[in-house]
Design brief:
heterodimer; A: alpha+beta; Alpha-Beta Plaits; B: 216 residues; alpha/beta; four-stranded antiparallel sheet; 34% helix; globular
């Protein structure tokens, strides 16, 4: 008996589910518009999220790129420079050092700049010897890094100690700001999806007042009346989420070519992270949740107002 | 089967529709509820169907005290009351079959049982050949018979009708009333509000007459 009841319970649910889908199908223009609004509202924060994730991915590649360039006094002889480098290597917060003599610096500059002829006219080498230091500290340990730079700066042979990572911090801060902005945008747009679905369901309820009254007169429970509207919300959300995912996919396809070319120009192995697998599940699921929730709120507000008289 | 005990009904606009009404209807009885417009006939039926609640006094139906029935139990209670209205209350966007099937779908009956019972009900009101029609394609008398089929399809012990022949000519009215008698003969308690005195006087049965919210 229970098995039979359960069976007819699920059959009923599937029937109502398909019935609501059929109802939406019968008004294709109105349905398409609602679904598109939902889709676009969901695609926007999702797209920005993908963008942000990609920027984060790029910047994380530079995580161990924080290095300190130690420009030594011009007159420092190579022997002293090398000695200094070896000495620095024993510091606990230094990971690796690389000594580059003034001569090597010039050679490198010659190669990179292509200013051979011009450099030949110079009376002497204008470049100082450099010690490039890779600290053991992560870029986030800002204070420790600053104090290391300070200690290095105070050494006798050092002309200038330069920590070259301010731009990385700025990028990270911009990222953080972006992340919060996107969160707020996502919340606002989710709220608008909720309102759109709620309003659509409200209109559907008003259109079917007579039907609801009759159902209540012949013994329909609130749950019975609510069910088709919840499934309507379910379909709106699911279809809206699918549209959002599709929009995102097409956008990424569209910009993928230029991004790859750009990466090639920067000699980078960067490829666009599509997140499409996650999004394929997350967007429709999220849309579906919003849809059911919006429908629930609308039905809850209006169902009790409609009683037989 | 139906018992009113000192029932008062006052609407929010202070209009007192029923004032200290007491009466009793036996199980399997058929009775007519008469009185002028505004005498409280509709209010009385609404109290039995729990569309309204009494302001004072108690209403018992099938040994159940309606005054104490919580709101969430109302739908399940209504499934045991067949309701027929003057304006039929049919859903015009679905077929006769689907209209009659509605109470069974709500009650969660299985597919085969629904088909069987809907056809039995339609057969009883003589509309078996119209199951695929939309209500709009039917005459007034036929629409009312669809309404009756829907009211009896889940075999309720009580059948209430509010002016079921209000819009019909005398011949059709007699036909409809005769249909109610048939249901009464198989044990259903039937309570029909009507001001068609000529017709109901000819039919016999008990009359409960209201005058300004009291028994006249």
């Amino acid at each position: 008996m229970l098995k039979l009841n359960l069976h007819s319970y699920f059959t009923r649910h599937i029937q109502v589910m398909l019935y609501s889908l059929g109802q939406l199908w019968r008004t294709p223009a109105a349905t398409a518009m609602t679904v598109l609004v939902i889709g676009i509202a969901l695609a926007l924060p999702a797209g920005l999220y993908v963008l942000l994730k990609n920027v984060e991915q790029v910047s994380s590649q530079w995580d161990d790129a924080s290095q300190i360039s130690l420009f030594l006094q011009h007159k420092t002889p190579d022997v002293r420079g090398k000695q200094l480098a070896e000495q620095l290597l024993t510091w606990p917060d230094i990971n690796a050092v690389y000594y580059q003599s003034a001569k090597d610096s010039l050679a490198e500059f010659r190669q990179l700049s292509g200013l051979d002829a011009l450099l030949d006219t110079l009376p002497s080498n204008p470049l100082p010897p450099v010690i490039v230091i890779q600290p053991k500290l992560a870029p986030s340990e800002n204070e420790a890094l600053q104090s290391l730079v300070e200690r290095l700066q105070n050494m006798q042979e050092v002309e200038l100690a330069k920590l070259d990572m301010e731009w990385l911090q700025r990028l990270r801060t911009i990222n953080e700001t972006g992340e919060r902005g996107i969160s707020i945008l996502a919340i606002l747009l989710s709220l608008s999806v909720l309102l759109v679905i709620g309003n659509t369901i409200r209109l559907a309820i008003l259109n079917r007042q007579t039907e609801i009254r009759v159902i209540k007169l012949v013994g329909g429970t609130n749950a019975f009346v609510r069910r088709p509207f919840l499934y309507t919300g379910f379909w709106y959300g699911l279809l809206g989420g699918a549209i959002a995912w599709l929009t995102l996919l097409l956008t990424l396809l569209f910009i993928n070519g230029p991004v790859n070319r750009l990466a090639a120009l920067y000699d980078s192995h960067f490829t666009l992270n599509w997140l499409s697998g996650q999004m394929f599940i997350a967007l429709p699921l999220f849309g579906l949740l919003l849809g059911v929730l919006g429908a629930w709120l609308a039905v809850g507000r209006h169902l009790n107002d409609i009683e037989p008289t | 089967m139906i018992r009113f005990s000192e029932v008062y009904k006052r609407y929010p606009n202070q209009h007192e529709a029923l004032s200290g009404l007491s009466f009793e209807l036996d199980k399997g009885e058929m009775a007519f509820l008469t009185g002028h417009s505004g005498a409280g006939k509709s209010t009385l039926l609404k109290l039995i169907a729990l569309i309204e609640r009494s302001s004072h006094g108690q209403v018992w139906v099938n040994n159940q005290n309606l005054t104490r029935l919580p709101k969430w139990k109302v739908p399940y209670y209504r499934r045991k009351i067949g309701l027929v209205f003057q304006d039929h209350n049919l859903l015009h966007d679905r077929t006769v079959f689907d209209n009659v099937a509605l109470p069974l779908i709500i009650a969660g009956e299985n597919h085969r049982e629904i088909g069987r019972r809907v056809r039995a009900a339609l057969d009883k009101v003589g509309l078996l050949n119209k199951e695929r029609s939309l209500p709009i394609a039917l005459s007034g008398g036929e629409q009312q018979r669809v309404g009756i089929a829907r009211a009896v399809v889940n075999r309720p012990p009580v059948l209430l009708a509010d002016e079921p022949t209000g819009n019909l000519d005398p011949d059709l009215s007699r036909e409809i009333m005769h249909l109610f008698e048939q249901f009464n003969q198989v044990g259903v308690t039937v309570f029909v509000a009507s001001h068609d005195l000529e017709l109901i006087n000819r039919m016999g049965h008990r009359h409960i007459t209201l005058h300004q919210g009291r028994l006249a």
